[in-house]
Amino acid sequence: MKKMNKEVILYLFFGVLTTAVNFLVYFLVLKLSDNYVFSTTMAFIVAVIFAYVTNKKYVFENVTSSFKKLLDEFFRFVTSRIFTYIIDVLGMILLIEYLSHGEVVSKIAVNIVVVGINYILSKIYIFKKEGI
Description:
Helix content: over 70%
Number of strands: 0
């Protein structure tokens, strides 16, 4: 299997798992707190940690040559995910509060957009090969 095809398949596989983690945490916290913004935030934190580990190790098979580069990579990962978190929260607010869509439909729609943006950022900004 070509490296690019393998990478895309693995990204989608772990993206589905990350989304499942995101949804699971979101709905568990929502049940406890009844606050979709807080639930989205908690789901984001857990999903980001899960996504960083799986993307680095299994999808992009990225090895960093120093601790400083590892911190830089993690910083880029977190900042890009904060960017998509903002899209996530604003999308949820827009769809639920202003367009009166349900929470489940809104979460699915927003996550489709977020997953696409996350792949692009991971590929060209976060896990780029050293020296490129």
